[in-house]
Amino acid sequence: MTTSGPREEPSVADLVDRLSEQTARLVRDELKLARAEYTEKAKQGGTAAGLFGAGAILAWFGIGTLLATLILVLALFLPAWAAALIVTVAVFLAAGIAALLGKKKTEGLTPTPERTAASLRRDVDTIKERI
Question: What is the domain extent for residue 109?
Fold first, then answer.
């Protein structure tokens, strides 16, 4: 049987050096993980955006077809030019109403993230109090 002698305790400098190395490695590993996650999410987001765009284009074509159908139906009862004019005026009225509603919604918006700024101010104040 071998008995080992008393173990040497690492010095404070060694412990601080190890802590520094391990902290740096931990931060690097966490950044690599975050980068990998963001890359995967960006790929999924790109695919989703492409599919959403394709759906929007197809819906746009569908609206155009629906408007043409509406003109043809009205043309059964009115001259074709009157049917087209009625549908055109209705579409422009809907566009104007949507634009006005959108403008009204944007009036109260500010580009500053108020909640985040307030949270950061509280964090800074807390840190100042404890120092």
Answer: 80-131
